Amino acid sequence: MPSYAFLSPQAVERREETTRRGAYSLLPHEKVWRDRQPGLQRRGYSLRQRYHLNWKPSWEGTNVDPDFCEDSVTLLRMDIIDATRPDGTVVALKSICNEGSREVEIAQFLTSLALPDNHCVPVLDVFPDPLDSARTLMVMPWLRPFDDPEFVMVGEVIDFVTQMLEGLAFMHSHNIVHRDIAAQNVMMDGSPLYPGGFHPMRRGFSLDVIDELKPLSRTDHPVRYYYIDFGLSERFAPGAPSLVVGDVGRDDEVPELSSTVPYDGYKADIHALGNLFHKEIELKYHHVDFLRELVMHMKQRNPAARPPANELVSMFRQIRNLQPAASYRWRLGSKSEPAYERVFNDTVAVAWEGFSQLKKLVN
């Protein structure tokens, strides 16, 4: 541990007092998972030490700062916890209520379609909740937000948009509407960027939460993006109308959403994805003008005027082909950067890119 991970005697006394007062105690939703730890262990899913029945804080009796102890890290969500399989793979366990939900059914159906354009999070395992027969636990890979770390180069955005459009066209071609497309429900497999792994809660740190991590470049180490959370999704019978009802979902800016008037679920998905591209890319970065036409088509107010997902895939392929090859390695630059800072960062980026290409030629 680094020297700053150790506390002075006075700080140790304060830490012991805050520990006694319950500052690091399990939260109510953490206790729910703690109670399931033995049953999960029997199925081959190990929870972090914090959620073992006999857990005691590892910093007790030491002068170590709890911030540098893995078992001080709390769980952020009630319905999802990280676990480790016997092979060391970190996975996500999601608790799902059986009544009125088709999430497991739809997610398993999508997983069964092993095709390259399938960008739906795969289901690795499904089994009954060991303590609640009304719930099911679904196991998936542990992913990280699609924009953590942030995009750096134009080609990274092009790859992201390509994968998201292909994934949407894939879902729609199999008669499924997502109905909750938003930034929170698009994630990526971060393992190419963090080959040594990362902590599932403190994503910028090592598994033991001691070392701060620096990600590899996704330009040189491409990642795969996934749609997650099919809790609101619908699967239609072949040839059946694609009408849905409900002003549900995280994106409340889809104009036709209604709890009483049926609307086309496919068209609503297209608007929601276009809105994601607009808010998370167009409004945040420079050098993404090539998205303007695509987003304009996707966000048209009249649902009937929005092209279907397969046409959007073709449209963006044409847009992509018009981009100069060199532009893929242009630095995006945040629109929140001051002008002087942007000029400096762009200059540094060009220099590093030239150095990187020279190294490849030499090697």
Structural descriptors:
single chain, Tyr_kinase_AS, alpha+beta, four-stranded antiparallel beta sheet, ATP binding, Transferase(Phosphotransferase), domain 1, three-stranded antiparallel beta sheet, Phosphorylase Kinase, domain 1
Describe the SSE topology.
Elements lengths: L8 H12 L7 H15 L37 E5 L5 E8 L5 H9 L13 E4 L6 E7 L2 E2 L8 H20 L2 E2 L8 E3 L36 E3 L6 E2 L7 E2 L18 E2 H18 L9 H7 L10 H13 L17 H24 L1
Antiparallel strand pairs: 1-2, 2-4, 3-4, 5-7, 6-9, 7-8, 10-11
CATH structural architecture of the largest domain: Orthogonal Bundle
**Contiguous uncertain segments of 5+ residues:** none
CATH level-four homologous superfamily name of the largest domain: Transferase(Phosphotransferase) domain 1
Write down the overall mean pLDDT.
Answer: 94
The largest sheet has its strands arranged as 1-2-4-3
CATH C-level category of the largest domain: Mainly Alpha
InterPro entries: Kinase-like_dom_sf, Prot_kinase_dom, Tyr_kinase_AS
Domain Protein kinase: 32-363
Organism: Lentinus tigrinus ALCF2SS1-6
Protein name: Protein kinase domain-containing protein
